Amino acid sequence: MDEPGQGRPAAFIDRDGVINVERDYVHRIEDFELLPGAIPGLRTLQQAGYALVVVTNQAGIARGYYTEADFERLTAHMRHLLQAEGIQLTAVYHCPHHPSAGLGELRVDCECRKPAPGMLLRASRELGLSLTTSVLVGDKGSDIEAGRRAGLARCVLVRSGHAPGGDAMAAADATLDDLAQAAAWLTGAHPPRPHHPAAPLSVDAPLQDRP
Ligand SMILES: [Mg+2]
Ligand SMILES: [Zn+2]
């Protein structure tokens, strides 16, 4: 585990349901649709100094639904769309495995399929990232668990993909609508919004020490 302050912090971002609209096993360019919060959210995180690292489970490769080449082609398309908006992804990591489905060497109980933290740990090694100052945004409990197991500073759940369950929300530091809101929360541009809305502050509240 790294020392705090050593290395650059990363924002680890799940792909489907966070950057693009969740559809089963997205692998065709025509099925890749950016979510409205993606560009503003990624821009906020980039401007705050986070390395943008996408971490995505792609068991569709193990299952034979699509190939590594299909995935790489879609990744190039995603990078192109984001670059046009001034957003540079530092890296994209994917897990092509599945523990019980598919054939051949991709059918394996690997270290990288979330909720395992393998992709985050590998990115930290290869890119010189500081995990303890890094953050994660995902739409599933397995995303949050991967971030926890890697020792990240903050793990935020968003509602823009899979509807998050109570366990996932309990494990996350916050649950917000989309990547734009998550980025604003993580960079302090908006006040923290917990799972349950706090009682609204009133400017007319009587002062406790008023005579
Ligand atoms: Mg997802
Ligand atoms: Zn894997």
Q: If you had to describe this structure to a student in words, what would you say it looks like?
A:
This protein is α/β, with parallel strands linked by helices. Helix content is 30%, strand content 13%. It has helices at residues 38-47, 59-62, 68-83, 118-127, 141-149, 166-171, 179-186; strands at residues 10-13, 51-57, 91-95, 135-138, 154-158, 174-176. It is globular. The termini are far apart. Residues 1-5 and 196-211 have low confidence and may be disordered. Bound molecules: magnesium ion and zinc ion. Zinc ion is lined by residues 95, 97, 110, 112-113.
Low-confidence stretches: 1-5, 196-211
Instruction: Give me the strand/helix succession.
Output: EHEHHEHEHEHEH
Number of helices: 7
Give the strand order of the largest sheet, numbering strands 1, 2, ... along the chain.
3-2-1-4-5-6
**How much β-strand is present in the residues?**
5-15%
Radius of gyration: 18 Å
Q: pLDDT average, as an integer?
A: 90
The tally of strands reads 6
Helical percentage? 25-40%
Largest sheet: 6 strands, parallel
- Shape category: globular
**N-to-C CA distance:** 54 Å
Ligands: magnesium ion, zinc ion
